[in-house]
Design a protein that fits this description.
The chain is of the alpha/beta class and 549 residues long. The chain has two domains: 310 residues, TIM Barrel; 99 residues, no CATH class. 32% of the residues lie in helices and 17% in strands. The protein is built from 17 helices and 22 strands. Strands 1, 2, 3, 4, 5, 15, 20, 21 and 22 form a nine-stranded mixed sheet that branches. Strand 10, helix 6 and strand 11 form a beta-alpha-beta unit. Helix 5 packs parallel to helix 6 and helix 12 crosses helix 13. It is globular and about 75 Å long. The chain starts with a strand and ends in a 14-residue tail after the last strand.
């Protein structure tokens, strides 16, 4: 047999959790067709994986790359970390259904809640659809480096049917019937499912709740029942009381559990530990365990006076301000005052809590808090921040965790049999968070440094587990007949690099970008997308339409 690609001499970690073994992988027409020792066969391309492991491409099922796909075909920064397939449209935020004349309605839902630049969306998206099936057809036609799948989002659906009233009113029975019709049509066309948010963190730029937060529970139920009528689709839902002991939370999980059991549709939501409710996640997982046994499946400174003016300037001018003794004194005084600004939601920039703000001087850590470092130098944390920024020519990062502050809780969450390791949020919050590296962080921190998982266990978590739980049954394993999505990396060196701030979005909008070390190649549908984290020019990605059985 003549191959399109042979990956030779690697240690295969096949995604199943079984021990690694040495072998070659032969690829033809986008599929893995032979595994073993391949000698003498004709091949169009050979990838030497000596000294590296060969795994399935990583699967990330919680992203917001709906807008980014229009201006970034290879899917950065996710692709740099071995990700080959993503699900977008989470939390109810999508670009369809929507008429071009009403595009501002979906942009209003997205720009604050998911921190996606309005200017970038208006400059970078060419509107060529109205309905969700038409949107999928447009996505199908776009050049793509990785594979994409997507939910139909509740916020866009409500504004499509209700217009401006979606932000202020409940839907009528006729409007709910119309929305359910569009959900059925989307699922039939290959939508991954239906997503919604009830999170108090999800607000519009004019301080209104995003559209889906106005929906009654009956409206949400109707959308899930519409998926059940078609016999396909997953509900992804964000927010609502999560894991507290209150009657409200108990009622929420009872209703969600009943919905999963009644409809037979899988339900998934993000779950984190929090210092504000340290054991809440345990009670949530107890509820998940109960419903699964019954037949259901659940799965800062820019707003301050003076700082605001300085941060609008070019970096060279900002540096002059920080070196000016009088300006610096006033900046420190302002930053030391109690915060009196607007309420901060979700991952928005927030006033610092110096005991929880860490200096990110390298990726490995352990990282010290700014308060601890300031005490060591007998100075104020704001003074220290300015000094450390100037020492690094203003290329200085700090971390403020918004969840999973307890690393032992985070580990226990990852180890739970009902959880899956995903949720990079890639494509959203692009100027504030950089979680696109979660897969290489898992491999470097939790596998190599902490030895909390074996390499085989960790690879299974980000390949086969995600692919299986979310229905990508032709991906997630190195097996003959499976799609040839492959990551080749050095387990001794793989890990995220320091992020960088770049202004490469449409309209010059800013985002964080992050590559990684140790990733030799990323293969998508049998073609090499990246070599040593550099694009090859190939764009082999596909739209993965969810199949009905």
């Amino acid at each position: 047999m003549a191959f399109d690609l042979v990956v030779k001499n690697g240690m295969i970690v096949d995604g199943s959790g079984l021990p690694r073994y040495r072998g070659d992988v032969g690829v033809k027409d986008g599929k893995i067709v032979e595994i073993g020792r391949i000698n003498g066969a004709a091949t169009a391309e050979t990838l030497d994986a000596e000294g590296h492991v060969v795994t399935p491409g990583f699967v990330d099922v919680h992203t917001h790359m709906d807008a980014q796909i229009f201006w970034d075909p290879i899917g950065t920064s996710s692709c740099f970390h071995g990700v080959t397939s993503v699900v977008m449209g989470n939390c109810g935020f999508t670009l369809a259904p929507c008429r071009e004349s009403e595009a501002d309605l979906v942009i209003r839902n997205l720009e604050r809640a998911e921190d996606i630049s309005r200017a970038a969306m208006k400059a970078g998206i060419k509107w060529r659809w109205e309905t969700f099936p038409e949107f999928l057809d447009v996505l199908d036609s776009l050049p793509k480096g990785i594979n994409y799948s997507g939910y139909i989002g509740h916020c866009a659906l409500r504004t499509y049917v209700m217009g401006e009233r979606a932000f202020t009113e409940e839907a009528s029975e006729d409007e709910i019937t119309t929305m359910a019709h569009h959900v059925r049509e989307a699922i039939k066309a290959g939508a991954f499912g239906f997503s919604s948010t009830r999170s108090i963190n999800h607000m519009t730029s004019d301080d209104k709740p995003v559209a889906s937060r106005l929906a009654t529970w009956a409206e949400l139920e109707a959308m899930v029942h519409a998926m059940a009528e078609v016999g396909a689709g997953t509900l992804e839902i964000a927010g609502a009381p999560s894991g507290t002991s209150s009657e409200t939370a108990a009622n929420y999980y009872d209703r969600l559990s009943s919905l999963a059991i009644e409809t037979g549709r899988p339900i998934t939501f993000g779950l984190f530990s929090s210092r504000h409710a340290p054991d809440a996640w345990r009670r949530t997982l107890e509820a998940v365990e109960r419903v699964n046994t019954q037949g259901g499946r659940q799965l800062p400174f820019d707003k301050w006076d003076m700082w605001r003016d300085m941060r609008k300037l070019p970096l060279s001018e900002q540096k002059k301000w920080l070196l000016d003794a009088d300006k610096r004194r006033r900046l420190v005084e302002i930053a030391s005052r109690p915060y009196e600004g607007p309420e901060v939601r979700g991952t928005e920039a927030r006033p610092p809590e110096w005991e929880l703000t860490y200096a990110l001087t390298d990726m490995r850590g352990p990282h010290k808090t700014m308060a601890e470092l300031a005490r060591q130098k007998n100075t104020h944390p704001v003074e220290l921040m300015i000094d450390m920024a100037l020492e690094r020519d203003l290329k200085f990062f700090m971390i403020f965790p918004v969840a999973n502050e307890s690393q032992s809780d985070a580990l226990e969450l990852m180890q739970h049999p009902r959880s899956v390791v995903t949720f990079s949020d890639s494509g959203a919050h692009v100027s504030q968070i950089m979680d696109s590296s979660l897969q290489t962080h898992l491999l470097s921190h939790w596998v190599r440094d902490k030895q909390a998982f074996t390499l085989e266990q960790a690879v299974k978590m980000i390949t086969c587990d995600n692919a299986t739980q979310f229905g990508f049954h032709d991906r997630g394993l190195i097996r003959e007949g499976m799609a040839a999505d492959i990551a080749v990396f050095d387990p001794a060196t793989v890990g995220p690099r320091m992020p960088e701030a770049v202004c490469d979005l449409p309209a010059g909008a800013k985002r964080l970008k992050q590559k990684c070390d140790g990733m030799k190649a990323t293969v998508v549908n049998g073609q090499i997308l990246l070599r040593d984290n550099e694009p090859t020019g190939a764009l082999p990605g596909r739209l993965l339409r969810k199949k009905r059985h």
